[in-house]
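3.2 Worked example (two chains)
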Amino acid sequence: MQILDFKTIDEPSGGHRAIAVFDLALTPEARLYGLRLLKMRDGRLLTFAPQSGSRRVATFAAPLAERITKLATDQLRALTADDRNQAA
């Protein structure tokens, strides 16, 4: 599993905050585009697949969702650490 593209954003999302959008190679044969990393009202970070109309285009079992979110969170921390280092 590998992140292909990752962009930080700051958008409201149903009372939560979307903080990043990213593309993911789930396996060498399967890619997912437009996943969103959301900061929930309670502070948790969760990953959501994009929607088509009012329907989600994919869902993930809890263990996979946790792995995807950890990968995205690690990428976010690396980016924000780079930003802090460049400002110093």
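3.2.1 Second chain
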Amino acid sequence: MKVFINEKTVKIVKLSPDINESFYDHVFTADDVIEADRLQGKLLVKDAGFDQMMNVVELMSTADVSALALIVFAFEKQKTAVAYFKEHFKLIVAAGGVIRKGNDILMIYRNGMWDLPKGKAEKGETIEETATREVEEECCVTVTLLDEIGKTYHTYTHRDKRVLKKTYWYVMDLKSDELMRPQQEEGIEKVVWMDEAALTEALEKSYRSIASVMKKYKKKYAKSV
């Protein structure tokens, strides 16, 4: 499992002898107490403890961890660790899309960041229906939903509650953008078609989760984006 916490990448993986420890700047074990000042560079926590992981997650949500690049928690029981992690959050399911018109991609600008259109699932709808509805509402376009790209997870705090947002992403082809405009009531300021150069620049002012979606999209589907 990969999850983004305050724009930092956290991975929960299966403990394996194939893990390349030389890739990391520091390797911790379950016996180590990991304080905020030790969260620097690329870190591996080998044979991690469940509470140890959640203590680090709390630090990542409250302390300055700007020097952290990546932290990987390796567990003997990886699935149990993922379940334990999820128990500490309220899960919200959302869906969105990479909308394409030729080689151009549709991006939205909200809260000072470039983003892809997405939104929360409503009761009674399928996740594919959520994805289509949200991108059409946020951008005032019509689309054809194609394949799933993948899922992303990121955390945030809302009303003092920890939230884990699971977002499903789909490739979509444009049907019509004749009435395209930003859904201002959702705080969207701009809706812009971007070519490869503009998209590369925009991703420098976007979220890591969005950059990871575009990386997957390019690898799976794009000949030139």
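3.3 Remarks
The first helix runs from residue 50 to 62.
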